[in-house]
Amino acid sequence: xxxxxxxxxxxSGGKMLAECLSRRLGYRCIDRDVLVERAAAQRVSQQELRTxxxxxxTVPGRFNHKRYIYLALIxxxxxxxxxxxxxxxxxxxxxxxxxxxxxxxxxxxxxPMDFRIRMAQDRLKLGRTEAVAHIEKxxxxxxxxxxxxxGVDWGDPSLYHLVINLEDISIDQTxxxxxxxxxxxxxxxxxxxxxxxxxxxxxxxxxxxxxxxNPFTSNLEVEVVASGGSVSIRGELFEQLEEVQRVVCAVxxxxxxxxxxxxxxxxx
Length: 268
What we know:
Strand order of the largest sheet: 2-3-1-4-5
Number of domains: 2
Shape: globular
Mean pLDDT: 88
CATH topology of the largest domain: Rossmann fold
Largest sheet: 5 strands, parallel
CATH superfamily of the largest domain: P-loop containing nucleotide triphosphate hydrolases
Distance between the termini: 56 Å
Low-confidence stretches: none
Order of helices and strands: EHEHHHEHEHHEHHEEHE
CATH class of the largest domain: Alpha Beta
């Protein structure tokens, strides 16, 4: 009952692989639009959420804090979607949004440029030149996005368990390879221990999202860790300690709270 994430460049076959695996395994297939819709239920703009997931950050500033808020909502939405396993997410940085999640199979799909151009021309009704420009821009933006937010190279193969090139292998063949890998490797099973760890990650992401949404704490950027209902928060809370305690303790599932504020800098 694994969770599968599929990283891919624009029109590289990731969606087709996700749908093939979904049919064969009976897993739910989740894309960015599902997350945006779920996160937008928290009374935020769907368009702004999409922008936060598509456009690369530039320099530190107010919009980048808004991006922190939107990513907190997106991460919480994704955690809730995959919390019980048997799910496939094909979208930007799923393996990074779910960092630390157990039972996670991280895939990356690459494809020849001609394959990608044909896909873009067919789906977007573009000429060849326009298709190439679109693909190059999207790839560039995604690389910058992951580098800025996570400090990693989007194409680094060490981020994935398996990188598959569709140059000489079909989607159906790729699907069988992945299923065989799931069946033969016990590390991707969703054990009771995995479920407990996922519950902790989901609770931590839900707490962070609630802090980001609350008008009295939305200016904060914090680290949140949960373990068996006990939540630990690290960050500069300034004079908002009581508000943080109130917001966090109201989140369903929270049974205890510890706060770790960094010591003030010594200017002596």
